[in-house]
Specification:
Strand content: under 5%
Number of domains: 1
Order of helices and strands: HHHHHHHHHH
Structural class: mainly alpha
Number of helices: 10
Length: about 220
């Protein structure tokens, strides 16, 4: 099972590298939002610091949500998922590898440019590690939610709208606790409770996401 997962992961990683323009587009969209928000709020450092954490989370969320509905779409359209199912390959391993690869190639570039973003909006460099950790946990949970939504709407009409409708309300707890973690960091308050909650949410999503994605993929194949 681990070998199959690894083979799927290598395949997805190679595809992601060959489609690097999509990753650059998401990073560019993230940067654009981060530049526009300070322009709208004004140059006051105190205001930027107060809203900076929320801006980072909103920008990260908005930059990746449009890609969730296409998570399995290309493989579905080219018949790869159907071929894997007919060869008795575990679709759960495929879905998990797909989500993990998507998470890495979309989140790591954001973390790389995060120090510059923090400096731009007045967030202290001393809290960068904790902020990056909370963002890492939050983006992982959002990727799992995106995988569930993408699997459930695969093959449906207006899949992008349906995926967004599913993701937006379900991701609210992640955004809330992510922002609360950042605010606690700014106020030098303990962040362990918020980090623990985010870890618990991610673990719960892992348990739910893989069977849900597998069910959605099988349903899409049967209704094709």
């Amino acid at each position: 099972m681990i070998l199959i997962f690894w083979q799927y992961f290598i395949r997805e990683f190679e595809i992601s590298i060959s489609q690097a323009s999509d990753i650059l587009s998401q990073v560019g969209f993230f940067l654009l939002i981060m530049i526009l928000f300070p322009l709208a709020l004004g140059p006051d450092p105190k205001t930027l610091t107060e809203f900076g954490i929320a801006i980072v989370w909103i920008a990260a969320f908005v930059s990746v949500v449009p890609a969730y509905d296409r998570l399995f779409l290309d493989d579905y359209a080219h018949g790869f998922i159907e071929k894997a199912a007919h060869n008795a390959q575990p679709l759960g391993c495929y879905a998990a590898a797909k989500c993990l690869c998507f998470f890495l190639v979309t989140t790591l570039p954001l973390l790389i440019i995060l120090p510059a973003i923090c400096a731009m909006i007045g967030i202290k460099s001393s809290i960068f590690f904790e902020l990056a950790l909370s963002l890492l946990l939050g983006m992982f949970g959002m990727t799992l939610l995106g995988g569930i939504a993408s699997g459930l709407v695969l093959g449906a009409r207006r899949a992008a709208i349906l995926a967004a409708v599913l993701i937006l309300p379900l991701s609210s707890p992640i955004l809330i606790f992510g922002c609360m973690t950042g605010l606690a960091l700014i106020e030098t308050a303990p962040i362990k409770p918020y980090i623990s909650i985010m870890i618990a949410m991610d673990l719960s999503l892992i348990v739910v996401a893989i069977p849900a994605m597998q069910l959605g993929l099988k349903n899409a194949i049967e209704n094709n």
